[in-house]
TrEMBL record:
Signal peptide (residue range): 1-25
Keyword Methyltransferase: no
InterPro entries membership: BCAA_transport, Leu-bd, Peripla_BP_I, TAT_signal
Keyword Signal on entry: yes
Residues covered by the Leucine-binding protein domain: 34-393
Pfam family, one: Peripla_BP_6
Keywords: Signal
PROSITE patterns for this protein: TAT
Family of the protein in this entry: Belongs to the leucine-binding protein family.
Protein name (record): Branched-chain amino acid transport system substrate-binding protein
Amino acid sequence: MQLSIATRRLFLALALSLTASAVMAQASAPAAAPIRIGMIEGLSGPFANTGEAVYRNLVWATERVNARGGVKLPGGNRPLVIERFDSKGQTEEALSALRSAIDRDITIVTQGNSSAAAAGLIDAIGKHNGRETDKQVLFLNYSAVDPVLTNERCSYWHFRFDAHADMRMTALMSVLSEDKGVKSIYLIGQDYSFGQAVLREARNQLTAKRPDVKIVGDELHPMARIKDFLPYATKIKASGAQAVLTGNWGNDLTLLVKAAREVGFDGTFYTFYGNALGAPAAMGDAGIGKVIAVADWFPNVPTPESQAFYASFRQRFPNPADDYVHMRMQLMIESLAQAIERAGAKDGAINAAAIAAQLEKAEVTLAGQTARMRAADHQFQQPLAVAVMDRQGTPGTRFDVEGSGYGFRVIRQLSPQQAEQPHSCNMQRP
């Protein structure tokens, strides 16, 4: 991509501005007592790499807020701090971590890498807040995308900053529905609430939008327990499927695409999370033009602001293994800072209910990406994009992921209005 001199200057200015946050944080961070955010996530076990990726994103986001002076409150500016709680990828451990966070007087928690854990946290926080009205807790969800969490199980205390699975599926299907070369497809996913929701919606949307496509496989596998996906890959190839659709993430996705390559499957992978965490490197050249992913944002979104944003992340975390930046997590922390400032503090104490009332109205912009919170169900409304894997350096693929030499070229972009879907939330408000 050739950039004009003016555009290159803008890119450089934005990159310098964003990367300055890490340097400025130490010098300009406010000295007042920090506002602590409890991150409850799997930091050990098979999905530890995804938990660490989240932590890097949240730390970087809080550094940006702190570099500009922290959260501005009447009693003085206060920095944001992330405190880690290891859920080990288990719902019961997540609930135990929540209790530990509450015991430490943390009133804002965040989690995302399990819809089952998120559902448990929503229930537990709702009960706690009903009992302990002076120690109420706010739950910010960055990745748990089971649609029920902002529909039947919606809660005043829960805010989701990722597009839910049905929204992501609609974006993905906008590309699949035009892929007339696909006449047969294999559906595979992790056997828990999110994986089940993905396959259910895949069946619904295929019936509505591509009734000519035959589903030649439809199965769920145990989550985080399969070490060898060759039997699954062998079945996929034997089915004659021309494409695979999966919501798998973490090692369950990496091992699946690696096994598919080993058995010689040459079909297309339509994925929710195929754009990092080892999947591109595992697929190699076989994935070029064949691995498609959906996300709220990709590094190769073709705007100078977006690319400067990504370049600054890579400067902050130069190790290729530390790649995988999430725009939505940055927007989540920006929304939180905005809501706390608008809610204010009484006698130096922040109040979860007051912050929630302001978070419902959040609208933020970062690096050209604008999103808003929908008050009716607490579902973030933001752009979505679909991208295809390509070799770094080809047109539209300036950046690779994780030093793999492969990146994702954006082929479809949906505005927040195009991505928005109706809800069935009947929220009980305090």
